[in-house]
Each structure stands twice: as structure tokens, then as C-alpha cells.
Amino acid sequence: MSQRWTVVLPPVALLVLLLSWGRHPGGVAEALLVTVVAVALVGAVLTAVHHAEVVAHRVGEPFGSLVLAVAVTVIEVALIVTLMVSGKGDTSTLARDTVFAAVMISVNGIVGLSLLVGALKRNLAVFNPEGTGAALATVIALAGLCLVLPRFTTSEPGPVFSPGQLAFAAIASLTLYGLFVFTQTVRHRDFFLPVEAGADADHGPVDEDDDGHADPPTDRAALISLGLLLVALVAVVGLAKVESPAIEDGVDALGFPQSFVGVVIALLVLLPESIAAVRAASRARVQTSLNLALGSAMASIGLTIPTLALASIWLDGPLALGLGTVQMVLLLLTVLVAVLTVVPGRAKPLQGGVHLVLLSAFVFLSISP
């Protein structure tokens, strides 16, 4: 709480939202408004990172990793629904594109960066394969059920679920996510705690009370940060809604496919997770980074799909969830590489580089399918 900008920016971003909501001045004034909103949006995202980390430090691992994951999902769902309601053109695949982009960015981008930073810093990035493997297995199951199966079901034409199938996928997603959270926070909490750098994963977690970091914040500081985090999240959702026409126009002006809007949304909402994960990796807490990465991928599917299934009652048009052929190939490569990365419980810079190359392939093929 010593950094004043983290206290000032959330209410300022909220004020910018109130002043810009529903305004379309046109000309130079419009360009200035878009710029101001973009700056406020980035500031709100950065402050959300800071306050989520304060709350996470107070509640400790692995509970702290859930704070950012849920926060990111709130932003993601709000953006998808608002763009599906107010976006131009066909938005039936926006949810699929955004969720798939979130999975690819989390499992390849955040994991790759974390492993690269952690391994370069201390030669090897060390983590617990039991906890990380459980998280990865849940992500794979969710991706298969919600993003791959709709391509092959026959009850409805196209890559969509029937209402009954969508309800089943939503219930299954919530069940898997709930089981994982119970495992992570109650039954096998120790599998998700950081392990000593340079030691075998079997040697167990680091003693959190002797980790060399600053003492946890007070309850008062944590509550203030929680309040400012909520303000920042409201500002992020609202400002992103205000900025969404400019995002869509920018994608069109660059000649990119409209599906790239989903990639932009995912990049935006995962920025807090990415920053927090890289910071944790630089402090030899790679397990925390992987908790954040896989937790956000899991929440992006396990919480977003059920919410969208409920929202589809009021949304017009189909909810296309089935991936295309190229996307399924990228998902398969990601799954194979991620499994091989997780099994040893340690990674060299090479593994981080492989994941980042897969992310680059995803982004490039999203621009040039």
C-alpha cells in the first residue's frame, strides 16, 4: 500500500469510465477519448495485479492463485457477453475464440515465460509434478468436453451443442472445477506449494513462514486492497466495453480476421496473470506461476462456459463452441508438449522456449489462418 498510484488509479479509472460511457464525440475528440480510455484501462489492469497480489499474499498459497483466476474470469465473461450483445457482425464464435485463446496464452504463453524466467534465473525451474499434473489433466478434460466435442456431435448442425448437451457440459465443467479447487485447497494443498529451487520435487514444499519474503499484509491492508481490486475490475470491464468498438475497428483496419478480437480480449484479461506469474518465477516460485497459468486456463473454461450456457437463454443466435481443424491441431500439440514438460517436475529453458514457439504459431495462424 506504500505505492500511492495503486490507490489513486482505481477510482480515477472508474471516473474515466463514468465520463466516457455512451459518448461518441467524433473526429479528434473521439481519438483523444479512445487514447485516454486505453491508458486508464492499462492502469486499471496493472492496479488489479497489485491488489490481487496483496490479497493473495495475505491468504497464502494456493488460495492466492485462485484470487487472480476468478478475477480474470469475471472480466472475461463480462467482455464476451457485452461484445456478443453489442458487437457488430457474427459473434457466435466469439466465446469459443476467446476461451481457446485464453487456454493457449495460459498453457503456452504464461507457462512458457514462467519456465524460461525460472530456468534462466536458477538453471532449472522446479515444481511439483503431482499438483501441476492434476491441474493440467483438468484443463485437458475441460478443453476436450467443451471445445472439441461440439465439433463432432450430431444433434445440432454445425459446431454447437444442443440445449441438453450444453447443460451437461456446463454441469460437468463446474463439477471438474469444484473437484480441483477442493483438491488444491483442502485435500492435497501441499501439492500446490512452491518447492525448493535446485532440490527434488519429492523434498516437499517450501516453508512459507521462512521464504525470505516480506511479512503478509495486515487484515486492514488486505481488505483495502480487496476493495480497490473490485473497483479496478469494474473499471476494467467497463473501459474495455467502451474501448471494444475501437478494438474491432483496429482489427478490421489491420486486415485481420474478426476472430482475432477474441485473441485481443484474452491478451487483455490475462495481462494481470502474466505479470504476477513472471514475478513469481523470478523469485524461484515457479509452482505459484504454474498455479496461476493452469488455474486461469481452467477457470476460463470451467467457469466461463457454464456462465455463457446460462446467458445463452437470453442471447440471440447460436453459441458455436467447436474448434476448427487448425485449432484442434494446436491444442493437441499443446497437450503433448505440456504433459512432457510436467512429468519430470523440473524444466530447462528449452521447455519454456517450446511453449512460447507454440504460442507464436497460434498468434500467427490467428492472423493468417
From TrEMBL:
<feature type="transmembrane region" description="Helical">
    <location>
        <begin position="260"/>
        <end position="278"/>
    </location>
</feature>
<dbReference type="InterPro" id="IPR052946">
    <property type="entry name" value="Alkaline_pH_Ca-Antiporter"/>
</dbReference>
<dbReference type="InterPro" id="IPR004837">
    <property type="entry name" value="NaCa_Exmemb"/>
</dbReference>
<keyword id="KW-0812">Transmembrane</keyword>
<protein>
    <submittedName>
        <fullName>Calcium:proton antiporter</fullName>
    </submittedName>
</protein>
<feature type="domain" description="Sodium/calcium exchanger membrane region">
    <location>
        <begin position="225"/>
        <end position="367"/>
    </location>
</feature>
<feature type="transmembrane region" description="Helical">
    <location>
        <begin position="99"/>
        <end position="120"/>
    </location>
</feature>
<feature type="transmembrane region" description="Helical">
    <location>
        <begin position="32"/>
        <end position="51"/>
    </location>
</feature>
<feature type="transmembrane region" description="Helical">
    <location>
        <begin position="321"/>
        <end position="343"/>
    </location>
</feature>
<feature type="transmembrane region" description="Helical">
    <location>
        <begin position="350"/>
        <end position="367"/>
    </location>
</feature>
<feature type="transmembrane region" description="Helical">
    <location>
        <begin position="132"/>
        <end position="152"/>
    </location>
</feature>
<keyword id="KW-0472">Membrane</keyword>
<feature type="transmembrane region" description="Helical">
    <location>
        <begin position="63"/>
        <end position="87"/>
    </location>
</feature>
<feature type="domain" description="Sodium/calcium exchanger membrane region">
    <location>
        <begin position="32"/>
        <end position="185"/>
    </location>
</feature>
<keyword id="KW-1133">Transmembrane helix</keyword>
<dbReference type="Pfam" id="PF01699">
    <property type="entry name" value="Na_Ca_ex"/>
</dbReference>
<feature type="transmembrane region" description="Helical">
    <location>
        <begin position="221"/>
        <end position="240"/>
    </location>
</feature>
<feature type="transmembrane region" description="Helical">
    <location>
        <begin position="290"/>
        <end position="315"/>
    </location>
</feature>
<feature type="transmembrane region" description="Helical">
    <location>
        <begin position="164"/>
        <end position="182"/>
    </location>
</feature>
